Amino acid sequence: MTRTLSVYFDERLAGKLTQDDSGRLNFLYDAHYLTSENAFPLSASLPLSNTVYADSIVRPFFSNLLPDDFARHRVARLLGVSEKNPFAILEIIGGECAGAISLYPEDQIPSPQKTKDYEFLGEHDLHKILLLLSQRPLLAGEKDVRMSLAGAQDKLAVALIDDKIALTKGTSPTTHIIKPPISGILDSVFNEYFCMLLAKNMNLAVSSVEIRHADGLPYLLIERYDRTADHHHRLHQEDFCQALSIPPELKYENEGGPSIKKCLDLIEKYSIRPAFDKIMFIHTIIFNYLIGNADAHAKNYSFLYLEGKPRLAPAYDLLSTAVYPQLSKKMAMKIGEKYNPEDVYLRHWVQLVPDTQLAKNTMEKDLKKFASTLPKKAQALSKTLEKKGLSSPIFDKIQETIESRCQHVLKYWGMNL
Predict the structure, then answer these.
(1) Other C-beta atoms within 10 Å of 336: how many?
(2) How do residues 171-225 score in pLDDT, each as one tens digit?
(3) Catalytic-role residue among 30, 154, 239, 295
(4) CA quadruple 309, 311, 314, 320: dihedral positive or negative?
(5) What ranges do the domains of the chain cover?
(6) For the chain, what percentages of helix, strand and coil (3-state, to nearest 5) are there?
């Protein structure tokens, strides 16, 4: 028997997601949506058309709305469905996804009225919920809570109202994402906070972040960039795996995931400001390399759609993984055919740009500027945070990694390559 979910783009019915008896997924845009004013595609991989899109295109896009890896396994187990069945999981928790998409059972029509159904959380209640996330990711199965966030890390979407944390119920939009400490990863909250602020200091676009505590437990509070400034409307976004029809289990390049070149080609083809966005993407690649973020895969880069027009979204999931000996040093995407950061030299960096002298000179200039500036910026940031009463041993470890990587880069200009 064919099963159907209604797919809404913000508050408008955009189409139907169906699953046939063999488990294959199909998607068809709604005819009224296609002819309506401001009908925008859900994805670069799903352009507006009256064509029925088949499983090979549809499954990667909708699967990438769900948590990755072990988090997805735990969600599926809690919901009593198969982790390999994205349709069944989205049927239960697809009411609040990344971007402007939400999914509902065919007979369930979300109210066009903006609800304000919130459950405010005191520190003690929030503390309990954050501890619960390791057993119940996304609060899956909790009554009236229907949210799905991609990624491998436990996280929680919430609303910040009058500076108070609240769970949303029904169709109420969330405004922020909470990331609690990662088990076994020392001061992960402080690590990501430091790297996000440092990125901002290097003129990269990032969301606003702050560290808060719930009964002594630190957590990172991140403002969602896929919401309007008044937090009343959802903005659409999709990660690069969705745009390229790559399933989440293949997000790493060595497993078949996108390369840096493929990401640059994607930006060139779809962004409304390709030249600027390609520069910002390269700058983010350089930054991730220098802070030692080996987990910067294609799902950590996204398009943000403003009035249906895609541009590179702010950087996110910035974490120095190199400071943890137990984590792999192998980079998620190659730089000039090299996965090992110690094997990357200038000749590998210039392979990322067009084979013109201007492009190569620009890459060299940007790389040298980042390597010369970043250690000073990191040191200044650490001192600023210390004055505000925020300190962590992880700050020193990140700075050591940055100093080592930057020295490695700056040697390019003193070596015969």
Answers:
(1) 15
(2) 677 899 999 998 889 999 999 999 999 999 999 999 999 999 999 999 999 999 9
(3) 295
(4) positive
(5) 3-105, 118-223, 238-414
(6) 40, 20, 40
Percent of the chain, pLDDT > 90?
Answer: 72
Give the separation between CA 90 and CA 103, rounded to whole angstroms: 7
Residue-wise pLDDT for 351-399, tens only, equals: 999 999 999 999 999 999 999 999 999 999 999 999 999 999 999 999 9
For residue 327, which amino acid is it?
A: L
295 included as an active-site residue: yes
Instruction: Output the average pLDDT for the chain.
Output: 89
Q: How far apart are CA 229 and CA 216, in angstroms?
A: 30
11 residue type, one letter:
E
CATH number corresponding to 238-414: 1.10.1070.20
Q: Which residues of 120-150 are buried (b: 16+ CB within 10 A; e: fewer)?
A: ebeeeebbebbeebeebbbbbebeebbbbbb
